[in-house]
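User: I'm preparing a small set of examples for a lab meeting where we compare how different chains pack in three dimensions. I only have the primary sequence for this one, and I'd like the structure in token form so I can line it up with the others. Please keep the answer compact; I'll paste it straight into my notes.
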Amino acid sequence: MGRTFDHFWEGVYHAAIERLVLFLFLFVVLLVWGWLNNRRFKTSERGSTMPWLLLLLAFALVLVLRAFGDELVPSISVAAALMVAGFVARAVKERDLWLPGVLLATLMGMGFMLSTLLVALVGALVLLFTARR
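Assistant: Understood. Below is the structure token output for the 133-residue chain.
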């Protein structure tokens, strides 16, 4: 009994650490993307460096995709997240970050971490080289 209980708490600990690492990675990437995106605007037009609503919705998408293993629920959640991102992107200042942010969260949620890293790097390079001065 004690051994099973120890394995349970060990699994909870590792799951919490995994979620924390995913959140921190998403936070850092969106912070860098937000900073690079703000470089494109004049000082008076700049918004927040961190798109908080995008961070929360993208992390929720990561958790939903990690929770389900079959193919139907992740497909529906990705389609719904992209539709919500498209609608929200019209109303917020960081409109350039919403669709790539949701695609980044989708790759993270499905476990494609190398592709996630590549999308984060390419997104940062695109924002870096398209800055207006």
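A couple of notes for your slides: The mean pLDDT is 83. The first helix runs from residue 2 to 38.

User: Perfect, thanks.
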